[in-house]
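User: I'm putting together notes for a lab meeting next week and I want to include a structural view of one of the chains we've been expressing. I don't have a solved structure, so I'd like a prediction I can at least talk through. The sequence is below, exactly as it appears in our construct file.
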Amino acid sequence: MKKLSIFTLPIFSLLALSSCSGVGDRAASAVLIYMITAVLSFLLLVACCFLLNRNKTWFVVLFASVFVVNLGYLILSVSQTLEQALWANRIAYLGSVFLPLSMFIIILKVTELKYKKWLPYALVAVGILVFFVAASPGYFDFYYKEVSLETINGVSCLKKVYGPLHGVYLIYLIVYFLSMVLTITMATVKKKLASLSYAVILASAVFVNIGVWLIEQLAKIDFEILSVSYIISELFLLGLNLLIRENEKNAAMIVEQSVSEDPVVEEAHCAPKDPTDICEERLEQFKHGVSTLTNTEKTIYLLYTEGKSTKEIMKQLNIKENTLKFHNKNIYHKLGVSSRKQLIEIHKHL
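Assistant: Thanks for the context. Below is the predicted structure for the 350-residue chain, given as structure tokens.
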């Protein structure tokens, strides 16, 4: 988290710049603020690419979306013609559509809740449809009935009369907000998150945007505050990812230090108990343990039952030996076994 502290000062400066002066002054400084947020979001995109070395695809999509949104706001604020402003508006909507999508997928992955493999593709398809509706002004009048360009204190903005399909994007956002809140709640109740602090960070990232969005709906403000709140959400999620990675690293180090003293962590080669000793109560305990495994632990469990070797599992999951040992310890504890052989033997009796 300390790696991200360098970004917090510019954000607080932006918030102060956009809220501590009169409406006219805020509008006059909007171009500068949009320029700073665009540069800052680009730097965060670069930082994301370097700081995250695995499972970063959706993080890249998220950070790229925030950059595209802020770039659109910047171009719109300096547009000289209606056509330029409409294209800038389309650019901003492109990022705005894929931002909640990527944020939702990241939350699903962090919470390790199960979802269908086709879900991301379906969400992308829906996002593309919503984007085409939101990008239609200038070609069709069902999103904006009327739109014109006006300048306030040297800052360009669109004056809009909403059309019948303008609610599509509103519904799109609300559904994602509710889905994120529901996902975090379910993960917390089911204890899918390793720490309650993870849930707090995830909830903060979501509620910052919900709060700012509600403010923009209820109050007339000449500045898109979401351009700042998006960056704050990025920092929450990037910080959470780095925190999880650091905790996994520390846990692996602890396992490594105790491996010589803890026979549960090692792949025990002792013979399993006599199959006749596997009573119904033990099987029920084992079944319940299987249902409590996280997605990663369930994958390792299934690979064990398929007869995969340690090297094959590490290669397939792209993890190190200490990380696998860390997962082994959790799996064995949940299933009530002391070795891989015992795990496989009991699995055969399910």
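A couple of points you could mention at the meeting. Strands lie at 144-152, 155-162. Confidence is low (pLDDT under 50) at residues 1-26, 258-276.

User: Perfect, that's what I needed.
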